[in-house]
Each structure stands twice: as C-alpha cells, then as structure tokens.
Amino acid sequence: MSKQKTMIVAGYGAWAKAGSNPASDVAKAVGQQDCGQHRIVSLEIPVRTNALTDIIKAAIKEHSPDYWLGFGIAPGACGIRLEALGTNWRSFDVPDNDGLMLEHEATIPGGPAAYDATLANQQIVAACRAQGIPAAISYSAGNHLCNQMLYTTRHLVEQNEGQMACGFMHLPLTPEMVAAESAEMPMRPSMSLEMMRRAGTIAVETILEGPSGE
User: Fold this and answer.
1) What is the pLDDT of residues 57-105, one digit of tens each?
2) Which of 18, 113, 159, 169 sits most deeply, having the most CB atoms within 10 A of its CB?
3) Cα separations (Å) of 77 from 40, 140, 141, 177, 191?
4) Looking at per-residue confidence, does 143 or 210 come out higher?
C-alpha cells in the first residue's frame, strides 16, 4: 500500500478586490473531497503580507505537507491559471488587510529573483481542459499576495523548512462579482463557482495520482 500523502489547499479570504473570495470557497470545497488514504487540509489564509511567512511556517510545522496548492483570484483572467513561477517582488495596486501599500519591495530580502512552481502544472491544465474547463499555464502571478504565497512556500522548502511540492492556481471572477460591478465599466470574464471547484478537485486528483502520489 502506498504511503499516505498530505496536501494543503490554501485559499485567500476576503480582501479589497473580493469581499467574498471564491479562492477560500474552492479550498474548502476541495478539502471536503474523498481522496482515499490521502489527507487534504483546507486553510483560509488572511491577506496580510507581513504575517504570511509565519502563517505558512505554522501550517507546515503542524501538518508536514507533501504538497501545497494555493488559490487566489485574478480579476480579468479568462480561465484557470496555473502559475509557473513566483518572483521576489511585492508591489501592490490595492492595500492588504492591514492597510499596507507596498511598492517595489522584496518578498524575501536577499532571496533569489524567482522560484519555479514544482507541481504538475502541465498535467493539471490538460486534465482541466479534458473536462471542458478553460485552463492555461501563466508566467506572471502578479506582485500581490498570490505571487507572495508561491514564492514564500518555495523559499521555505529551499531553506529546509518543509519538504513539499508547491504551486498556485489563479481563479477568475465569478459571474456574481462581475454583475456587482458598475454597468458603466467593460464587463470582465467570469467563471461559475462550481466550475472553479471542479478545477480545484481535478488539480488535487491529478497531483495525487502522479508518480509521487500513487
């Protein structure tokens, strides 16, 4: 029998661009899935830039995950985006939940310029598309906390704070979020929450069914 694997699925909670964040909803829904002998831990992560490293460290210490998959929203995205790398930059267009507005600041002072994601992004994209869900690999995770989560998780692995494969999935707005915007502004792409949940579940299943999760 194969060894039990532990995966953390971590979705951001409410913030300036999402009073009700689908990222948190998707993480919770994925965490309720039956993955056989494997364990899925769902976390809601507060949008607090200076607290993020400690939050991630605490989660790693408590759960000793084999995989970390983050979720956040990317307003304007046309589909699911699997992020290929996180960069060592924080430059915010809206404040975090502590009211901080950062411009051209390092995520980890003295850290490398970027880290690659280490989850099976190509396989996840292919599996989503096979189920009729638009998905693609992205090479820009932005400069807010979504990028920060991917960079920080990878940095902690490199610093021997954990032994896990890391990745991040960006989600579009929901139709309800677009409908709540001003009718005077151009409508932005959206995706149903149910389809996002399916994409998250497909990602988890694809990861756990891969060579290291069999």
Assistant:
1) 999 999 999 999 999 999 999 999 999 999 999 999 999 999 999 999 9
2) 169
3) 27, 12, 11, 13, 9
4) 143
Measured distance CA(26)–CA(193) in Å, rounded:
8
Q: pTM (2 decimals)?
A: 0.95
Residue 157 identity (one-letter amino acid): V
The mean pLDDT value of the chain amounts to 95
Place of tokens 């831990």: 41
Closest CA to 49 of 104, 4, 92: 92
SS3 110: coil
* Contact (Cβ atoms closer than 8 angstroms) between residue 46 and residue 14: no
Q: How far is CA 40 from CA 27, 73, 94, 103, 189, in A?
A: 10, 21, 31, 35, 30
User: Half-sphere exposure of 155 toward its Cβ, with a 13 Å CA cutoff?
Assistant: 23
Separation of alpha carbons 210 and 212, rounded Å = 6
For 150-172, write each residue's pLDDT tens digit.
Answer: 999 999 999 999 999 999 999 99
Instruction: Indicate if the pLDDT at residue 212 is higher than 70.
Output: no
